[in-house]
Amino acid sequence: MNYSKEVARSQRYFNPFSLLIYDAVLYGVISKFAWGSSIGRLDAHYRKYATSNHLEVGVGTGYLLDRIRFETTAPRLALMDLSASCLEKTRQKVARYRPEVYNQNLLEPIAHCPAPFDSIGINYVMHCVPGSFAEKGIAFRHLTKLLSDHGVLFGTSVLSESVNKNLLARPFMWLMNAMGVFNNRCDNAAELKTALEACGKLVYFEIVGVTAFFAIRKC
Ligand SMILES: C[S@@+](CC[C@H](N)C(=O)[O-])C[C@H]1O[C@@H](n2cnc3c(N)ncnc32)[C@H](O)[C@@H]1O
């Protein structure tokens, strides 16, 4: 697959070995104490917007996805990611739903034509994607094409500009950017909002700690 060196650099860290410690580091410590978002707060965002016809984008280990209580026991669930390791780990975790699996770089036009989804989740993904929101916001445009008429795209992203970073957030975010896992040095709330509003009707936007929680509906 052909993608930029920044995308490749970030992807290097989403491998079977790092995924072994991912949940403990992110959900045990960093999400709550650096980014300001507890698991409960993230669960609530999923509870509000996830439907039984759901596409999860940038799946990681599938930690939050696995915690969703769908309205039906047999939801339609699809997974989309550039990392084969993330897709496989998450596919195994939610195998009970027999998920559809799509290998895709979000910066490229979607190479698949699945039936439309009523909800698309994109949690803690955009801060890894290179470019300003004016550039990487193209991912929202690609994804909203996969929504049904009444569908919702929701998620979170860690911001760097226009937020107050605490004593843990500051060095950890610096390190993530220096390593190339994150690409969010210039990410701010105003530009994220603009990128979202270019693709749908903004129905939710809140900054919690350094995390932007958002949801858009198809216009
Ligand atoms: C920080 S993890 C978030 C994982 C999970 N959503 C969570 O909340 O824990 C970022 C995820 O986005 C994926 N990702 C990053 N850049 C991507 C891109 N350009 N295209 C597709 N997936 C990407 C990574 O492979 C990884 O699964």
Topology:
Blueprint (H helix, E strand, L loop, with lengths): L4 H7 L6 H16 L5 H11 L3 E5 L18 E6 L2 H10 L6 E4 L13 E7 L9 H4 L1 H7 L2 E12 L10 H11 L9 H9 L3 E8 L2 E7 L2
Parallel strand pairs: 1-2, 1-4, 2-3, 4-5
Antiparallel strand pairs: 5-7, 6-7
Bound molecules: S-adenosylmethionine (SAM).
The site of S-adenosylmethionine (SAM) has 21 residues, from helix 1.
From the structure above, extract its key features.
219 residues; alpha/beta; Rossmann fold; 7-stranded mixed sheet; 8 helices; 7 strands; globular; binds S-adenosylmethionine
Quick rundown:
This protein has 219 residues and is an alpha/beta fold. The chain has helices at residues 5-11, 18-33, 39-49, 84-93, 133-136, 138-144, 169-179, 189-197; strands at 53-57, 76-81, 100-103, 117-123, 147-158, 201-208, 211-217. It has a single domain, classed as Rossmann fold, CATH 3.40.50.150.
Structure description:
Helices cover 34% and strands 22% of the residues. A hairpin with a 2-residue loop joins strand 6 and strand 7. It has a single domain, classed as Vaccinia Virus protein VP39 (Rossmann fold, 3-Layer(aba) Sandwich). With 219 residues, the chain is an alpha/beta fold. The chain has helices at residues 5-11, 18-33, 39-49, 84-93, 133-136, 138-144, 169-179, 189-197; strands spanning 53-57, 76-81, 100-103, 117-123, 147-158, 201-208, 211-217. It contains eight helices and seven strands, in the order H-H-H-E-E-H-E-E-H-H-E-H-H-E-E. A seven-stranded mixed β-sheet has the order 3-2-1-4-5-7-6, with helices on both faces. S-adenosylmethionine binds next to helix 1.
